[in-house]
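Possible regression after last week's pipeline update?

I re-ran a chain I had predicted before the update to compare outputs. Posting the input and the new output here so someone can diff against the archived version. Not blocking, just want to make sure nothing changed silently.
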Amino acid sequence: MRTATLEQVRRLVDQLSLPDQARLLEYLTPRVVRTVVSGQQAEAVGKAALPEAWAELFRIGDAIAALDTPQTETLTSAVTSARR
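New output (post-update):
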């Protein structure tokens, strides 16, 4: 199946009567609304999960740091001392 371009669709819509254009809008509106709402929900979920992801990252980092041995420099201890 060949995909129509936006310009082709515009030309077709211009050929429709006003009542048919109104019916086309009635058909398209729920589809557009569904797409916009689902995009906003996905964005909100992503933003809500961000603080939890950072907390998990720091929890893992603290667990790794607790396993460090003082006599051997590790990447974690080098980064920690470089941050200070």
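Follow-up from reviewer: compared with the archived run. The first helix runs from residue 6 to 15. Marking as no regression found.
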